[in-house]
Amino acid sequence: MEDAVTLGTAIRRARKEAGITQETLADLIGTSPRTIHAIETGTGNPSLITVVGAANAVGLHLKAVDG
């Protein structure tokens, strides 16, 4: 869960730096503002595709790490 919160915080920060609202980000990636809120707070269960879409839309690029 900690990773989800960390990623959500990074997405929120990048969204705010880009000057866009949760509603605008939701429109850009075809989801609801409620889902964006869930991503940014690390709550709920948004799909991986939606999280990646949100990250990409605000200029973050995720990469897999072998662990």
How would you summarize this macromolecular structure in one to three sentences?
It contains four helices and no strands. By secondary structure, it is mostly helical.
Please describe what this structure looks like.
The protein has 67 residues and is mainly α. It has one domain (2-57): 434 Repressor (Amino-terminal Domain). It is 64% helix and 0% strand. It has 4 helices and no strands. It has helices at 2-17, 22-29, 33-41, 48-57. The protein is globular. It starts with a helix and ends in a 10-residue tail after the last helix.
Write a concise keyword list for the protein shown above:
67 residues, mainly alpha, 434 Repressor (Amino-terminal Domain)
How far apart the termini lie comes to: 16 Å
Structural class: mainly alpha
Number of domains: 1
Q: Give the strand content.
A: under 5%
Low-confidence stretches: none
Overall average pLDDT: 93
As a whole number of angstroms, the C-alpha radius of gyration is: 11 Å
Annotate the secondary structure layout.
Blueprint: H1 2-17, H2 22-29, H3 33-41, H4 48-57
